[in-house]
Design goal:
Layout: H1 19-30, H2 34-45, H3 49-67, H4 72-93
Helix pairs in contact: 1-2, 3-4
Length: 98
């Protein structure tokens, strides 16, 4: 079970000058709190294995759908979807550490 809110794990971070303002601006632009913005950014950078597994299942489903499509245009459209999902997954897991 995932704990959120006040019962969740906490960690104090010292931010370099100006970073807090950039995080605040990004959070405001997306209509969320700074904490939510920081957590979303960290989750994007460090995806959970469950997220990668979910993406793999989506790729498999898209490939199966493309293979079973009736016409070449439908196959091409479904293949494009599978490629986009795969590209997103590869982007998540292949980013070099900073």
């Amino acid at each position: 079970m995932v704990t959120v809110g006040r019962g969740a794990e906490q960690y104090t971070v010292r931010l370099p000058d100006g970073l807090r303002d950039r995080i605040k601006a990004a959070a405001d632009a997306k209509g969320r709190s700074m904490n939510s913005e920081i957590v979303a950014t960290l989750q994007e950078k460090y995806p959970a294995l469950e997220d990668i597994d979910r993406d793999m299942r989506r790729i498999e489903a898209a490939v199966r759908a493309a293979a079973s499509s009736r016409g070449p245009l439908d196959r091409a459209r479904r293949s494009k979807v599978a490629q986009e999902v795969l590209a997103g997954l590869l982007n998540k897991i292949s980013r070099p550490p900073e």
